[in-house]
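[Q] Does anyone have a clean structure-token version of this?
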Amino acid sequence: MASHSALGPSLTRKSHVFLTGRPGVGKTTAIRRIVELLQNEKKPQGDGGGGIDGFYTQERRERSRRVGFDVVTLNGERQSLADVMPDAPDPSRRRPRYVVGRYGVNLEKFERSVLPILRQYVDKSSSHAHGQVLIVDEIGKMEAFSKEFLTNTRQILESNFVEPNVNVVGTVPSAGGHFSRELQALLKLIESHPACAVLEVTEENRQRIPARVVAMLQGDGSV
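[A] Here you go.
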């Protein structure tokens, strides 16, 4: 996915900000730092006015080996998003229905954790205080097995392009992947719409990205 900026000098207020970059470069680490920065200045979700809500994806390791991914909501709930499949298939166990690479995706658990969060913001954005931030990490192949996830995310973005009550901060995959038609359409919307900023995370800028994103949401050109 082409990025609008690799942390260039221009800063304008954006409704939604997304991070992209190669796998393992630190996108989710940056998202978690953004959450920390925002939590220092915002009220918790449900406490009235401009809070922060959403989820991020975190890899799960055992003995330094990646064995899967978890989806973690900002209220502390954790569910397995995907588990690595055994090298030798077990004939007594059915192959997962949803597969990305060597991972079987736990679609039901993902939807049970994430969809209730997104549904709060679909067609109800006007009921949320100005400045509400919704974290969506990630809009990727695994998550895209959920058609409702893609639909809800698109509706939230489109209903908050102009004078947004809800600002989405998320991550998207880098260009070159083979994506479903629905995921491609959503990524194209994010890449092309002037209300969205897509920043490329690199080893050189990943320490500065979180403060940059917060500044973009605030329209602060001092960073």
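[Q] Thanks! Anything notable?
[A] The beta strands are 16-20, 52-62, 65-73, 78-84, 99-100, 103-105, 132-136, 166-171, 196-200.
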